[in-house]
């Protein structure tokens, strides 16, 4: 850090806020769950920073998981190249602005002899600072813009570069310090890696195989690509000592209805649940539900409703989900088993919950694999099944428009409209005839009309 000019010695003025520090040690694991290397990082105690004095804006975008899934699926569909790079010490590459004056204590055993009352005045950002992620994103964005990339308007953490004369395409998906590179030819990947080396230190990780705890396997001969979280699922099963539980075939027990009435009512039951890692267990399930397991989304959303005051019945439901994951951890989310571009499915169950709100859900698939999904309680109480399914169709159409726009920006206009399947004929008729407006804040057809083509078409799905 001294060689990189991360800080300089300076005497702090009276009343200055001096930030503390902490060493963080971590074991980095590979796709098999084995320890690949050990890391030690000096992290500032950003919680001691004062808003409006030490920092202002902190937001920095990262690529949406739906964007990553859609790009991976389209890479396999179009036969493109898919590689990854890691940026070393990402947050250490950005120089602080002149108006951002931050002081930090000397790390233990690293104080220079004879400096007296001088402390560290930060020149570059460090991990832990409130503004570090935003500063790093601005630095990386400026690098890509200097390399003639353009920022995708649909997802601001995706950068694209078109060469229409050579018919060459390069897409970079950014997840903080991990970048996924998609190109039409292999030499474009090496050119981009060489260009990045001129600005920052980059580790070439080769073909994409491990990203955000996701294992990716690309079968070039069979034209399929597969995503798994087996290592992550094994790690959380070990973390909560669920490895010896018997696997189950369903994520929830259909005979058990979870309600708030099952929450503890007296101190004895409350203390029993106080020792259960309910919040941690549900939080660990969230990442699996978001990344590769759409089949547990509703179950996780259900148990998450009771995190404020969970009961033993709710804890049993959480263990039920883990037992289900133990049985499916070797299954993969696959793209390419069937060739079909973006298609969506939407449904609602009616108002059967205790609060009379319907459960709605949708899923969008590319080449037979899900790229975006959701399952949650409806925000309002609907008056009929038709209204519930019209509302979920509205939410589904918003997601369809976003996915359609993303794929069109990155890979060019789609040849066919996106089909949105529903099993309710009345809902489809209302969507086509534009006669249902009450209780809705979004007009799906109005949004469709602002696009250059009819990108979403409602369609009847029989047998749902």
Brief description of this entry?
The chain contains eleven helices and 21 strands. With 464 residues, the protein is an alpha+beta fold.
Shape: globular
Main β-sheet, spatial strand arrangement: 8-9-10-11-5-12
Major sheet: size, sense and barrel closure? 6 strands, antiparallel
User: What is the residue-averaged pLDDT?
Assistant: 86
Helical fraction: 25-40%
Q: Indicate the structural class.
A: alpha+beta
Uncertain stretches: 436-454
**How many individual domains?**
3
Q: In percent, how much strand structure appears in the residues?
A: 15-25%
Number of separate strands: 21
Terminus-to-terminus distance: 60 Å
If you compute it from the alpha carbons, what radius of gyration comes out, rounded to the nearest whole angstrom?
A: 25 Å
Number of helices: 11
Which characteristics define this entry?
six-stranded antiparallel β-sheet; globular; five-stranded mixed β-sheet; alpha+beta; single chain; 3 domains; 464 residues; Nucleotidyltransferase, domain 5; 30% helix; 11 helices
Give an overview of the whole structure.
The chain folds into three domains: 7-226, no CATH class; 230-328, no CATH class; 338-460, Ribonuclease H-like superfamily/Ribonuclease H (Nucleotidyltransferase, domain 5, 2-Layer Sandwich). Helices cover 30% and strands 25% of the residues. Residues 436-454 have low confidence and may be disordered. The strands form five sheets. Strands 8-9-10-11-5-12 form a six-stranded antiparallel beta sheet, sandwiched between helices. It has a five-stranded mixed beta sheet with strand order 19-18-17-20-21. 34% of the residues are buried. The longest helix has 27 residues, at 385-411. The protein has helices at 65-78, 132-146, 186-197, 230-239, 267-274, 278-291, 297-304, 312-328, 385-411, 425-433, 444-449, and strands at residues 7-10, 18-19, 21-29, 35-44, 81-87, 103-104, 119-122, 150-151, 158-163, 168-175, 178-183, 202-207, 210-211, 214-219, 224-228, 333-335, 343-348, 359-366, 369-377, 418-422, 456-460. A hairpin with a 2-residue loop joins strand 13 (210-211) and strand 14. With 464 residues, it is of the alpha+beta class.
């Amino acid at each position: 850090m001294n060689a990189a000019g991360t800080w300089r010695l300076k005497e702090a003025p009276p009343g200055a806020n001096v930030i503390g520090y902490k060493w963080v040690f971590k074991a980095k694991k590979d796709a098999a769950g084995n320890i690949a290397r050990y890391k030690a990082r000096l992290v500032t105690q950003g919680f001691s920073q004062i808003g409006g004095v030490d920092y202002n804006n902190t937001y920095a975008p990262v690529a949406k998981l739906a964007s990553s899934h859609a790009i991976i699926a389209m890479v396999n569909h179009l036969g493109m190249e898919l590689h990854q790079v890691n940026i070393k010490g990402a947050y250490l590459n950005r120089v602080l602005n002149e108006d951002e004056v931050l002081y930090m204590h000397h790390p233990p055993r690293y104080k220079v002899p004879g400096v007296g009352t001088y402390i560290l005045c930060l020149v570059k950002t460090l991990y832990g600072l409130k503004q570090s992620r935003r500063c790093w994103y601005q630095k990386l964005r400026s690098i890509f813009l200097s390399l003639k990339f353009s920022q995708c308007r649909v997802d601001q953490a995706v950068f694209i570069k078109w060469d229409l004369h050579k018919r060459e395409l390069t897409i970079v998906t950014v997840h903080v310090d991990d970048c996924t590179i998609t190109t039409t030819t292999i030499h474009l990947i090496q050119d981009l890696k060489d260009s990045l080396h001129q600005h920052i230190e980059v580790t070439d990780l080769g073909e994409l195989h491990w990203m955000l705890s996701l294992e990716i396997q690309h079968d070039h001969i069979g034209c399929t690509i597969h995503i798994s979280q087996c290592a992550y699922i094994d790690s959380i099963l070990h973390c909560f000592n669920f490895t010896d539980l018997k696997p189950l075939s369903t994520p929830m027990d259909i005979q058990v209805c979870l309600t708030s009435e099952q929450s503890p009512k007296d101190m004895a039951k409350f203390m029993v649940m106080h020792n259960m890692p309910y919040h941690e267990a549900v939080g660990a399930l969230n990442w699996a539900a978001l990344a590769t397991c759409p089949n547990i989304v509703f179950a996780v959303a259900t148990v998450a409703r009771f995190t404020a005051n969970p009961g033993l019945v709710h804890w049993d439901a959480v263990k039920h989900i883990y037992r289900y994951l133990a049985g499916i951890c070797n299954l993969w989310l696959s793209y390419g088993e069937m060739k079909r571009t973006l298609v969506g499915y939407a449904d609602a169950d009616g108002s059967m919950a205790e609060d009379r709100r319907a459960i709605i859900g949708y899923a969008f698939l590319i080449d037979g694999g899900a790229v975006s999904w959701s399952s949650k309680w409806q925000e309002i109480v609907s008056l009929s099944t038709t209204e519930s399914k019209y509302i979920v169709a509205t939410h589904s159409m918003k997601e369809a428009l976003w996915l359609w726009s993303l794929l069109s920006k990155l890979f060019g206009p789609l040849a066919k409209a996106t089909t949105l399947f529903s099993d309710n004929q009345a809902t489809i008729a209302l969507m086509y005839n534009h006669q249902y407006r009450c209780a809705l804040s979004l007009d799906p057809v109005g949004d469709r009309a602002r696009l250059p083509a009819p990108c979403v078409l409602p369609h009847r799905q029989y047998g749902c």
